[in-house]
Amino acid sequence: MKATQSKSPISNYFLISIFLTLPLLLLLLLLFSLKAAVHPPPLPQNVALAESEDLRIRPGYSSYGAYIQRQLNKTLNPKLRTTWTTRDWDRKIQVFAKFFDDLKQEKLLSNESKALCIGARVGQEVEALKRVGVSDSVGIDLVPYPPLVIEGDFHRQPFDDETFDFEFSNVFDHALYPDKFVMEIERTLKPGGVCVLHVALSKRADKYSANDLFSVKPLVKLFKRSEMVRVRKVDGFGLDTEVVFRKNAKSLNAIQRP
Predict the structure, then answer these.
(1) What is the pLDDT of residue 50?
(2) 58: Cβ–Cβ under 8 A, 6 or more apart, which residues?
(3) The pLDDT of residue 42
(4) Per its UniProt entry, which superkingdom is the organism in (predicted)?
């Protein structure tokens, strides 16, 4: 009985010390996490980014996984997804439909086109294509939204070579590797196929963007197997410029997938 009583104060002191030090340990862990988020480790030296004076990659990604997670933070945001599928749904479809109607008038898109929307979120642009008569349309995004959007990373599209006649995207600014983004478009476009990009040139894109574009010159350089058809000003949900490319009819199929 005495032995048991002599151990009791020691146990109490031990429990008290844990109780007092635990908050300090949690505080240190929180400070370490915040420091890592603000100052993440640099990308490995062997990672090549397609950067130039008019195309700048935003810093701050410790790995490709960290980049994907940041994109998912936007895509999976419950408030944003509710807005996209309710208040914004019809409004965005109407605007996209007008863009696609204009492209049909210019013979850059037709009802027979097999179309892809890249980074389509919940698929307003896909629905707009279907409503203007382009029934064979689908979107890709990191998070699927059936039946309009399937899962896919635009740095490595889940499609065979020369699958689509038409590809549209308004998420070029979200590409961490713009060169891979464009190479995948040119890989999956049929010869003579059309790609339409909506980009922001006059102002910076949102906080989830991975790059900043200051002119169309880097796009012309990146589209190695295509010719620029035209550039025009648009009002596309914060994006101010529409750039249209057509893939060369005689395209070299020897270029490998990134």
Answers:
(1) 58
(2) 209, 210, 211, 212
(3) 38
(4) Eukaryota
Q: What digits encode the pLDDT tens for the residues 64-99?
A: 999 999 999 999 999 999 999 999 999 999 999 999
Rounded to 5 degrees, φ, ψ at 82 are -65, -45
Q: Which helix (H) or strand (E) holds 14?
A: helix 2-38
Pairing, β 211-213 against β 189-199: unpaired
Helix axes of 64-75 and 78-85: crossing angle, nearest 10 degrees = 50
Select from 62, 61, 39, 73 the least CA-distant residue to 211.
Answer: 61
Using an 8 Å Cβ cutoff, are 258 and 156 in contact?
Answer: yes
Token pair for 19:
């109780």
Residue 30 has pLDDT above 70, yes or no: no
**Residue 232 β-bridge partners:** 242
First to last CA, the chain: 74
> Tokens 């698929």 — which residue?
123
Helix (H, G, I), strand (E, B) or coil at 240: strand
Give the contacts of 5 (CB within 8 A, at least 6 positions apart): none
Enter the DSSP assignment of 208: T
Q: Phi and psi for 25 in degrees, rounded to 5?
A: -65, -40
Contact indicator for 197, 230 with CB cutoff of 8 Å: no
How many angstroms separate the CA atoms of 155 and 61, rounded?
Answer: 16
